[in-house]
């Protein structure tokens, strides 16, 4: 009897302690998990999809495999935010069906109910996506990617697939995917931009259901070192100008300048049928939205009000070279911060600048400022900051002299001898992001094989570095967003030390502000 009681107690104690461990596991975020970047509740995520704004809510859908932490049968995961910062997870929006997996695509508010899906003053949100049919692919066919639509009549909460899917069949183009749809006001029709392997194709429609081919662009433009994916087409007014230009984003994998996946862009005119490159844009010069390795498949939000007027972009913060083997287990990958795009004229043609959206300022917590001073060598900051340096926003303004030989920036490190550096190499005229010694990298020989460089887009003696670090990622917005670099890293112990440094010559630190970033509120659905 006694032994039985002890046995029972042991079992009960065992269960209790197991439960406690489980509870702790849930509350303590897994190592390397970002605290304020969007991540899926669990398992695999890639491209952002269907980003649309409606009635005060930003919707973010994403490529999601809820049953595994590597790529698999694609669903559309879903989250909603009222401010681009605090996200609430929603139930999965779209599941694979007999026509295929649900690949990337977009969503629009059908303001005029052209689709007829709306009723009783309820407007539909319509999602347009690619069906990827595995059986067709395995059978060696070329027409296994078709385009389908689904609609929601309850502000994006639930979705019904259109019974007439697919709305666009495939004429035999192996890679034909990732529809981005816009309303083209001047011609009063919908325009779909589709990636087609080595070019994009435009289709038009009166009702989102019947599509006609309009034209193609890109066979002889831009980079062709990989497959074209995830296009976006939008008009934007360059700063200080009335005239609107059209921007075409095209992700390419592989073939990005620093390796693997990247996003190039073109600037020109679009008349509802054809995209024509701006004469000021050299077809041989490739422009990239971000020169780090971890900003891919990014597109912009649809239906942001004219009053707001912003063009807001978000990308997937990873790279197909290693996305499936990065050292995380319960979830894989995060999105970049939301960024506002701006178009500016430079002596070398049009350039897209990216800035972190204003809303991110609401995450700023304690701050620390260094007084202006000359900098040679390093200032160890962690001892004076008063908060950990891995949930951080930094704004530096650095003055360099004529013919400066200085290499300067920020360095995060730990006592395992690992470090990550980001900064500017004045003699080379290049920004750099260096994760070559930033921790775990044995999972892929491509991950830490080189320092990433990006050329400076503006001139002047003041170099600005605006950097966000969130446990396992850094996003650099240099010179007010003229040059961007986004990179992830996996230190074996969190970086707990930070210094600002200048080597090979002094620089003047004009401004140095540091903000602790508060965990954002990501919650589950109601
Ligand atoms: C880009 C991409 C898309 C495709 C999706 C599949 O990362 O390859 O072209 O629709 O991912 O998950």
Protein model, in words:
By secondary structure, this protein is mainly beta. The protein is 7% helix and 46% strand. The N terminus is likely disordered. It is globular and about 65 Å long. The protein folds into three domains: 30 residues; 314 residues, Tachylectin-2, Chain A, CATH 2.115.10; 155 residues, Jelly Rolls (Sandwich), CATH 2.60.120.560. Bound molecules: beta-D-fructofuranose (FRU). The site of beta-D-fructofuranose has 12 residues, from strand 1, strand 5, strand 9 and strand 13.
Which superfamily, in CATH terms, is the homologous superfamily of the largest domain? Glycosyl hydrolase domain, family 43
The structure class reads: mainly beta
Q: Characterize the overall form.
A: globular
- Share of helix, binned: under 10%
Number of domain modules? 3
CATH class of the largest domain: Mainly Beta
Radius of gyration: 24 Å
Bound molecules: beta-D-fructofuranose
What share of the residues does DSSP label as strand, in percent?
A: over 45%
Number of E-type strands: 33
* Overall average pLDDT: 92
* Weakly predicted, low-confidence segments: 1-26
CATH domain fold name of the largest domain: Tachylectin-2, Chain A
If classified by CATH, what would the architecture of the largest domain be? 5 Propeller
Individual helix count: 3
Taking the alpha carbons of the first and last residues, their distance comes to: 48 Å
Task: Note the main attributes of this structure.
five-stranded mixed beta sheet; 33 strands; single chain; Tachylectin-2, Chain A; eleven-stranded antiparallel beta sheet; 526 residues; mainly beta; Jelly Rolls; 3 domains; binds beta-D-fructofuranose; 3 helices
């Amino acid at each position: 009897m006694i032994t039985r009681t002890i046995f029972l107690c042991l079992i009960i104690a065992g269960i209790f302690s197991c439960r406690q461990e489980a509870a702790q596991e849930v509350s303590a975020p897994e190592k390397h998990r970002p605290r304020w970047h969007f991540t899926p509740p669990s398992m695999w995520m890639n491209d952002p999809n269907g980003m649309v704004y409606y009635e005060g809510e930003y919707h973010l859908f994403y490529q999601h495999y809820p049953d595994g932490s590597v790529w698999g049968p694609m669903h559309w995961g879903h989250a909603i935010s009222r401010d681009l910062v605090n996200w609430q997870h929603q139930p999965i929006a779209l599941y694979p069906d007999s026509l295929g997996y649900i690949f990337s695509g977009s969503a629009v508010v059908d303001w005029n109910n052209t689709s007829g899906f709306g009723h009783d003053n309820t407007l539909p949100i319509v999602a347009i996506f690619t069906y990827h049919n595995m059986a067709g692919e395995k059978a060696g066919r070329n027409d296994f990617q078709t385009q389908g639509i689904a609609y929601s009549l309850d502000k994006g909460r639930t979705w019904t697939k259109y019974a007439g899917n697919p709305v666009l069949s495939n004429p035999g183009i192996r890679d034909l995917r990732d529809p981005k749809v816009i309303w083209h006001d001047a011609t009063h029709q919908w325009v779909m931009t589709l990636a087609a392997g080595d070019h994009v194709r435009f289709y038009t429609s009166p009702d989102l259901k019947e599509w006609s081919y309009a034209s193609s662009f890109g066979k002889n433009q831009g980079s062709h070192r990989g497959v074209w994916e995830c296009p976006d087409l939008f008009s934007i007014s360059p700063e200080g100008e009335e005239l609107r230009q059209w921007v075409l984003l095209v992700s390419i994998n592989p073939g990005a300048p620093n390796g693997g996946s990247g996003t190039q862009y073109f600037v020109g005119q679009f008349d509802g049928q054809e995209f024509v490159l701006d004469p000021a844009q050299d077809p041989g010069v490739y422009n990239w939205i971000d020169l780090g390795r971890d900003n891919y498949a990014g597109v912009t939000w649809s239906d942001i009000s004219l009053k707001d007027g912003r063009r807001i972009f978000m990308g997937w913060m990873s790279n197909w070279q290693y996305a499936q083997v990065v050292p995380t287990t319960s979830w894989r990958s995060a999105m970049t911060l939301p960024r506002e795009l701006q178009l500016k004229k430079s002596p070398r043609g049009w350039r897209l600048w990216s800035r972190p959206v204003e809303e991110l300022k609401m995450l700023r917590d304690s701050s620390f400022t260094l007084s202006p001073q000359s900098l040679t060598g390093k200032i160890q900051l962690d001892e004076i900051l008063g908060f950990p340096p891995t949930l951080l926003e930094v704004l530096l303004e650095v003055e360099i002299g004529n013919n400066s030989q200085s290499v300067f920036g920020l360095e995060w490190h730990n006592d395992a001898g690992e470090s990550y550096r980001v900064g500017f190499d004045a003699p080379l005229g290049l920004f750099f992001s260096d994760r070559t010694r930033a921790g775990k990298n044995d999972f892929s020989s491509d991950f830490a094989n080189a320092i990433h460089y990006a050329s400076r887009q503006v001139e002047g003696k003041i170099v600005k570095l605006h950097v966000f670090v969130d446990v396992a990622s850094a996003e650099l917005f240099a010179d007010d967003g003229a040059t961007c670099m986004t990179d992830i890293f996996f230190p074996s112990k969190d970086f707990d030390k930070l210094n600002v440094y200048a080597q090979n010559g002094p620089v003047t630190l004009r401004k140095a502000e540091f903000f602790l970033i508060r965990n954002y509120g990501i919650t589950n659905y109601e």
